[in-house]
Amino acid sequence: MRKVALSIRKKQKQARPDALTKRHRIDTRSFPMPFRGRGSSLSWSLHSVFHSRCLHTSPNHLILYSLTSPQPQLSANEFLRWLERKATSTISSSLSIAKSSYGRSLFASKAIQAGDCILKVPYSVQITADNLLPEIRYLIGEEVGNIAKLAIVILFEKKLGQGSEWYPYISCLPQQRELHNAIFWNESELEMIRPSSIHQETINQKSQIEKDFLAINPVFECFRQSFGDFSYKDFMHACTLVGSRAWGSTKGLSLIPFADFLNHDGVSESIVMSDDDKQCSEVIADRDYAPGEQVLISYGKFSNATLMLDFGFTIPHNIYDQVQIQFDIPKNDPLHDMKLELLQQYFVPPSKDMKGLKYCLNSFTIKEVRTAKGKGKGIPQSLRAFARVLSCTSSQELHNLVMEAEQTDGRLARRPLQDISKEIQAHMMLSSLFIQLIEERSATLTSLDSSYSPLCEGVSVRRLMARDLLHGELGILKSAFAWLENYRNSLT
Ligand SMILES: C[S@@+](CC[C@H](N)C(=O)[O-])C[C@H]1O[C@@H](n2cnc3c(N)ncnc32)[C@H](O)[C@@H]1O
């Protein structure tokens, strides 16, 4: 999983809301570890699911169970008691486990006030790559990342069944059929998201997991006699679990039992934080909760694309939505090679915009442009510069851009072209691209709406996810298009 992003993120200190600073000092924020954009193999992230559009405010089942498990597992209270016994400390006196439309969830069992510490899970009852059996750890190469390692821990503990010291936890992790991460979608389901870059990212992620499985398979082979087979499907499931419910912190990647029953609310200010001094992870309530209300935290500022790929759900009207677009130099452009060379030479990888996504010369992240005069916010300057370079029709024009860059801040084509008609033309190219992207999404949304039939639950959940994703992307593209039109009009 994305090592770079993690190391950047690890350095951050949490900007804590006031309520959280009053009574608690926590060292480091912990982050869920999505796969999306991970650069290196064998190091990823997690997720699971129950998509829904409403927050349930009261527990509807009090038994903690896996939907597919033939055997009832520990009741919610027994689970917490088991974990507290293992930890020899109180983990939470204000939360209880129950089911909501999001799957297993934590609910306030008594009134909670903003600033209250609602759970405290010691490191000693968290599962990390250190929990790998020494004989397995010894066989795993350095290139295997923490997500894959944690997935292997889950797979081996699962095989141990009731003999595992983690059995009560491992046995209540979601089954694959409960997960809606895009990598589990079949071809016709993936068609629903074809216009989005997430379609290709899903294919890439699947092939990465496959490669990782092939690399790890010799290790599984060594233990086949004692543990039986580990299939690619098992491995993919385990990796997805880790990717959707493990947190990264200073000590690496951890599964944090109990805390990982907390579901996500994009606007919550509560997060899981790790305190190395106290050797535990904590969550502080960011608001008051009445007894019976579901307690939610934020996993991070994730777009629906990331939530869909890595966590298997989406949020309607996600404020963190963004669209990944690609803009290519036409192959038949006589200046193709020269432009490519220039763009490569002057390409500056974005530092914070594309959190963890693989940087690519012709790939751009578009965010919503909130006002018509939004000063290009949401349309990256680098995209406009790219368009200006593309609009050049002679090597002299390209040379002029290089000269201008050298005389100014060294960045290519960041200023409006002196020839206004060229500047308009460059932005018209962008408008055409946005029209095409808008049309593709609109057409898919129309066909999604017209072909709706009450199919099985899983498919309708995925259809809603596809709609959330495409609606969000459509809104962003339309806002960007409106800004471009406004800019062009201002030049005429
Ligand atoms: C850390 S786990 C939370 C516990 C999980 N509900 C369970 O049953 O184990 C993360 C998973 O919960 C589900 N989830 C969390 N927040 C959600 C939300 N706002 N909407 C839908 N599903 C959500 C997704 O399946 C996600 O991958």
Automatic annotation (TrEMBL):
Keyword annotations from UniProtKB, A to Z: Methyltransferase, S-adenosyl-L-methionine, Transferase
Name this polypeptide is given: SET domain-containing protein
UniProt organism field: Clitoria ternatea
Domain SET intervals: 93-300
Molecular function GO labels: protein-lysine N-methyltransferase activity
Stored PROSITE patterns: SET (PS50280)
GO biological process, one term: methylation
Transferase as UniProt keyword: yes
